Each structure stands twice: as structure tokens, then as C-alpha cells.
């Protein structure tokens, strides 16, 4: 069996190494490849800082607010696409595709969600989407964002390209996202044009400034310490 497990499930538990079948491309390998864009792409990523604390109340099955974490709000505006190719093996469909974009959030159960844009009819060169989305992220250090472009079709939507990146690596502002093929290669001149904003949910929607220590996952966190109690007999 050359299928792949979901590496996100293991990262949520604090694992740093997950055995993958590199010969099998797909969403699971996209997550794996994207995860190790962190730390300069050196191949080593620390566990989230709250997992490295002496006292931690984190659970991999968390479905709400994570004690000690700094929740954030991710604002994504999908503006347009550039030079989308026809899906592989779709020669008989004609020269024009009907693209749309899916945004997937991967992370702890409370953060996992998916949204999509409308379909742009018959435009592969410069489809205009102009749609905004907002995602509540409870544990940013484990969150991954996957941008997927698909061709809307009656029989089945076909894959065009994707790009997967950790939330910690996202930079605010207007960005061109280079899309990768199904096997993970960067497709030349094939991009998504987006606007990214990340705000601090606990700070009343103020922009989240990322210092060097924040990007390295070294934020100071406060925990309720356990105290010893003496029981009289």
C-alpha cells in the first residue's frame, strides 16, 4: 500500500517525523512538503512552544480555545489568477477552463475548515475572483493553508494547481502565490494574486505584528501553575 497518512494528525500530537511515501503525490504530500518550508526549509521544525512548556494543558483533540495559545484571524482576499493551464489529460475539453479556488485550513480540529470562490467561466489567462474570506485560527503554530485551483466540470472537478504553506510563514500584504503541479513542481508563471492580513483575535482585531521571536515560535506564554497541597491525616 503506497497511500499516505495525514501528517497533520501526527504534528498535532507533537511528532516531528512522519514516514511518507514520496512516490505518491497528493494532498497529504502537499501538507508534508509545505510544513517543512518553515525554519528556512532546513528539514527541521520545532514543536509548538506550548508543547515545550513544563506545564501544558494542550490536547491534540482540542475543539475550542487552546490554553496558552494566541488565537488569530486570517483574512484572505482572492483577487485573480494568472496563466492557469488545462488539467492534465483534458485535451478533449477544448482550450478554455472554468476555474475556482478552494481555501483549506489544516490544523487542530477546531481550525479545520474549507471555503471556495465562485467559478469564473471560460477564463484561464486572468480570471477575476475578487472574494474575501475570514478564518478563526485557535492554534496558529499548527495551522496550514492550502490554496487549490480546480476546473469546474459536470463529471468531476479537475486539479489545476495548489500551494500549501504554514500560517507562520505567511506574510501580510499583496502577494503572488506560485502554484505547484500535482507532483509538486512549481509551474512557471502560474500564480494566484491575493491579499493577506492576520489580526490578533484577543486584541480587538488589531494587526498582528510578527517579531523575529514570534516567527521562531518563542512567544512568552502564561500558564496557571500547579501548586502542591498538603493533606492532613
TrEMBL record:
SUPFAM superfamilies per UniProt: C2 domain (Calcium/lipid-binding domain, CaLB), PLC-like phosphodiesterases
EC number per UniProt: 3.1.4.11
Domain C2: 52-181
Keywords, ordered alphabetically: Hydrolase, Lipid degradation, Lipid metabolism
Alphabetized CDD domains for the sequence: C2_PLC_like
Record GO terms (molecular function): phosphatidylinositol-4,5-bisphosphate phospholipase C activity
Keyword Cell wall biogenesis/degradation on entry: no
Main EC class the enzyme belongs to: hydrolase
Biological processes per GO annotation: gamma-aminobutyric acid signaling pathway; lipid catabolic process; phosphatidylinositol metabolic process; phosphatidylinositol-mediated signaling; regulation of synaptic transmission, GABAergic; release of sequestered calcium ion into cytosol
Known catalytic reactions: a 1,2-diacyl-sn-glycero-3-phospho-(1D-myo-inositol-4,5-bisphosphate) + H2O = 1D-myo-inositol 1,4,5-trisphosphate + a 1,2-diacyl-sn-glycerol + H(+)
Domain PI-PLC Y-box span(s) in chain numbering: 1-52
Pfam families: C2, PI-PLC-Y
InterPro entries: C2_dom, C2_domain_sf, PI-PLC_fam, PLC-like_Pdiesterase_TIM-brl, PLipase_C_Pinositol-sp_Y
The name this protein goes by in its record: Phosphoinositide phospholipase C
The organism of origin for this protein: Micrurus surinamensis (Surinam coral snake)
Lineage: Eukaryota, Metazoa, Chordata, Craniata, Vertebrata
Amino acid at each position: 500500500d503506497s497511500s499516505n497518512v495525514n501528517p497533520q494528525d501526527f504534528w498535532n500530537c507533537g511528532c516531528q517525523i512522519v514516514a511518507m511515501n514520496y512516490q505518491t503525490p497528493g494532498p497529504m504530500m502537499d501538507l508534508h512538503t509545505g510544513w517543512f518550508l518553515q525554519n528556512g526549509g532546513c528539514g527541521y521544525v520545532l514543536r509548538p512552544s506550548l508543547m515545550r512548556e513544563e506545564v501544558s494543558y494542550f490536547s491534540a483533540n482540542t475543539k475550542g480555545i487552546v490554553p496558552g495559545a494566541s488565537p488569530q484571524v486570517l483574512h484572505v482576499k482572492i483577487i485573480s489568477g494568472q496563466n492557469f493551464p488545462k488539467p492534465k489529460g483534458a485535451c478533449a475539453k477544448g482550450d478554455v477552463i472554468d476555474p475556482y479556488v478552494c481555501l483549506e485550513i489544516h490544523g487542530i480540529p477546531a481550525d479545520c475548515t474549507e471555503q471556495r470562490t465562485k467559478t469564473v467561466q471560460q477564463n484561464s489567462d486572468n480570471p477575476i475572483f475578487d472574494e474575501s474570506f475570514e478564518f478563526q485560527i485557535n492554534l496558529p503554530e499548527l495551522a496550514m493553508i492550502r490554496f487549490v485551483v480546480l476546473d469546474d466540470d459536470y463529471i468531476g472537478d479537475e486539479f489545476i494547481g495548489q500551494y500549501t504553506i504554514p500560517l507562520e510563514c505567511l506574510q501580510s500584504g499583496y502577494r503572488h502565490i506560485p502554484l505547484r503541479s500535482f507532483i509538486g513542481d512549481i509551474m512557471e508563471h502560474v500564480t494566484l494574486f491575493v491579499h493577506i492580513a492576520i489580526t490578533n483575535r484577543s486584541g480587538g482585531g488589531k494587526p498582528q505584528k510578527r517579531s523575529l521571536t514570534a516567527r521562531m515560535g518563542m512567544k512568552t506564554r502564561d500558564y496557571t501553575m500547579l501548586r502542591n497541597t498538603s493533606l492532613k491525616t
